[in-house]
Amino acid sequence: MHGPADRRSEVTRGASDGARRMLTGLWVAALLAILAFLVVYPVIMLLLGALTDTNPVVDGISRSLSHLSIANFLAVLANPNVGEALLNTLIACGGGTAIAVAIGLFFSWIVVRTNTPFKGFIAAASILPLFAPPLVAGVAWAILGSPKTGLINTMFKWMGSDLRVDFYSMWGLVFVFGIYYAPYVYMFTSSALRNMDPSLEEAAEISGASAFSTLFTVTFPLIMPAIISGMLLSFIVMLGIYGIPAVLGAPTNLNVLTTYIFKLTNWSPPLYNTAAAVAIILMVVTGFLVYLQQRVLSGRSYTTVAGKAFRPRSLDLGPWRWLTFAIGIVYLLIVVVLPSLALIVAAFRKFMFIRDVASLFDMRQYSLTHFESIFDNPLTMRSIYNAVEVGLITAIIGGALAFAIGYTIHRTRVPGRRSIDLISTLPVAIPGLVVGVAYLWAWIGVPGGLYGTIWILALAFIARFMPDTVKALSTSFLQIHRELEEAAWVCGKGMLGTIRTIVLPLASPGVLAAMTLLFVLAIRELGSSLFLYTSNTMVMSVLLLDYYEGGNIGKTAAFSLVQTVLLGVLIGGANWLSRGAAQGNVARTG
Amino acid sequence: MTATLEVTELRKQFAVGRPAIDGVSFSVPAGEIVVLLGPSGCGKTTTLRCVAGLEHPTGGEISISGRVVSSPARGVQVAPRSRDLGMVFQSYAVWPHMTVRQNVIYPLKHRKISRTEANRMVEEALTLVGLSEYGDRPVVALSGGQMQRVALARSMVYRPQLLLLDEPLSNLDAKLRLRLRDDLRVILKQTGMTALYVTHDQAEAVVLGDRSRQ
Questions:
Q1: Which listed CATH number (3.30.930.10, 1.10.3720.10, 3.20.20.80, 3.40.50.300) goes with A17-43+370-590?
Q2: Predicted ipTM of the assembly
Q3: What is the per-residue pLDDT for A151?
Q4: Which regions span the lipid bilayer (chain A) (predicted)?
C-alpha cells in the first residue's frame, strides 16, 4: 500500500548524509552539463546564427555575436521562396497525413475488429514501411514513377493504356508520404481499439445501429484521441523527412522546408544564416505540433469500467472478408514488393531504358556492373565503415547516457531531475535536419574542434535520438519491481552495486534492444549527417544521396540494395541477440 | 409490446473444450422477470448473449413472442438490432463521448420516430430512472450508480419487447447496490416489461425475480 513516491526517498537516504548529498549534487551537475553540451549549446548557437548576418567560418564566433539583430530573421520571413517552401511543406504533409490516417485507421479496424483471414500477416505488413529508409523509398518510387522512364508508365504503355503517372510532383510526394507513414497512425489506433470495451459497440448494435453506423457514431469518436495523436505524429515525422522530397521534388524544383534548408547551405557562398533562420521556422512548427500531441495524449482518455477482461470481438464480414484481405495484399504490394522489385531491376540492369516488357525479362540486359562500379569506388567501403563506426559510438555512449538519465529521472528523487527530464525530451521537437544545422553552427567556427570528425556525427545522433532511447530504456527498468532493488539494499549492497548486480542484469534485454534501435537509427540517419560530414567522414546515407544526385540510377539502386540488406541483417541479428538475452534472463529469474 | 421469450435446448460450443451451455431450456412469460442465478463461469452470461444475438448458438432454438430469432439447425440468426430488445451491460457501456441525453436518445435515432416524440420519450425514461435533472451532463461526470441508471434508461427508452440485464449491479458498492436493486424492481414492474436478469447474487435474485433458474 505504499505509493512509489514514498519509496523513492530511500535512494537519497544514506549513512553519511553530507558526503552523499555532495555526490548526488555532482552527479546531477554532470548530467546537466552533458545535456547542456549536447542539446542546449547547439540550439542557442542556431538561434544566434539566425539573428546575425556574419559567416561563422570567416568571421569567427565573437564577431558574429556583435552583429545580432532581428533584421536577418525578418528578411527570411518575408522571402517569397521561404513562404513557398513552407506552403509546399504544409500541403505535402497535410495531404500525406490524410492518406496515412485513412490507411492506418482502415488497417487497424481490419486487424482488430474483423475476421479477415491471415490477420497476423496483415498486421505485420502494415508496420513494415517503418523499416524502409526514406531515401531508399524515395529512390524506389522515382524508378517506378518517373514520368518518362518510370516502370509504371512502361507497363501502361505495354498494356496499350493512355494512363500515365508522374511521381515527380506534389501528388507523388503526397502519395509516397501517405503510404509510408500510415504505420504511425496504425500503431496508435490499433492499440486504442484493442483496449476499448467491446460492450460499448454491442450496446450500439442492440440500440438498433448498423455496423457501419456504429463505427462512425461510437467506435471512431471513442478512439478520437488516438486518431489525433497518430495523425499529429505522422505529420511531425513528415515535416522532418529529407530523403523523399529530395528525390521526388528535385526534378521539378519542388521545395519543402527541409530540402530548401539544404539548398541554402549548398550555395556558394553558403547562406548559413538563412538556413539557420529557416531551420528555426521548421523547429517552431514541429515544437507546436509536439506540444499539441502531448496535450491530446495527456487529455481525457475514455477509460471505462469493466467487470472482466475484454473478450476479443470480431465482426463477421462474410464473403467481404476476402475483399479486406485483398486490400491488405495490395497495400503490401505497393509499399514493399513493387519498390523492392524496382530497386532490383534497376540495380542489375545495364541500362535503365526499357523498350518493352520482353526486354524486361531479357537476361542479357542484366549484370553486376553497377555493384562492381560502386565497390570500385573507395568511398563506398569507407562510408560503410564510417556508418558502422558512428552507429557503434552512438549506440554505446547514447545507450549508457540514456540509462543514466532514465534511472535518475524515474528511480531517484534527486533535486534537478525535472530539468534533466525536460532537457532530455527537448530534441523530440527538433527535426534531424535542424539538429544538423545547429551542430554546424555550434562547431564549425570552433578551431581544432569537433567539426570534420566522426564524433560530431555521433554526438548529433545521440542528442537527436535521446528522447526515444530514454523512453525505450525507461520502460525496460520500470518493469523491474522496486522490491527487487530494495531487497538488495537490505542485503547491504550500495546503490551502484544494486544497479550493477540487480537492475542491469534484469534490464539487459531492454537495454540491448534500445541500443540496437539507436544503432539502426544512426546508420540510416540522413537529415543531420548532411551538414556534418566531410569527405573523410562520409557515411552511407549521404553517399547514397550523392549517387542519386550524380544521376546514375543503376548505381543508386545497387547501393540502396546494399544498404537495405545491411540494415535487414543488422536488425535481424540484433533481434536474435536480444531474444537470446531475454531467454537467458528468464532462466536466471526462475 | 411486451413479449414471451422461449429458449429450447440451447447449446453453445466455443472453439475448444466442453460446451459453455449444454441443452438449456426455459421460458419467460410476458411481463415477468426471470433471473438466471449461478456461480460465475456457468454459462449464464453466454445464454443471455445468445438471446441478445451477440453470440451465435451452436444448437437449439430461441424465439421471442413466437418469432424464431436463433436456430442454427434452420439457419436462422437474426441480427441483434432487428430483435427489438434492450440490454444493460455489466460495465454499463454508456458512451463516454456523449451527454446523458445523447446516450439515451441514441436508440431512437435509429428508429422512425419524430424529434418531438423522441424528446418526450427521453424525458420520460430519464424521469423513470430519476435522472431528469442530469440530461445535459457528460456521462463521465456521473457516479457508477448514475451511469447504470443511464444505461437502464437507454435500454428502455424505445420500449423493447424484452429487456436483458447482465449483472447490472455487480460493479457498484454494497450500499448503492441495495438501493438500486429495489429501484430496479419498481421500475421494471412499472413498465411491465419482460426481463431476463443474470446474477450470481442470491439476494438479488430473490428480490428481483418472479421466478428464478439455477
A1: 1.10.3720.10
A2: 0.88
A3: 84
A4: 26-48, 60-78, 85-109, 121-144, 165-186, 231-251, 271-292, 322-348, 390-410, 422-442, 448-466, 502-524, 557-577
